[in-house]
Amino acid sequence: MKIDPNSDEAQLRQMKEKMKDAMKPTPDMMKTVFGNQDLMSGFDDPTVMAAVNDIASNPQNINKYKDNPKVMKFYQNMAKTMAQRCETLAEEEERVKGKSQTKQQRPPEPKQEKKFVPVIEEL
Question: What is the pTM of this model?
Answer without folding.
Answer: 0.61
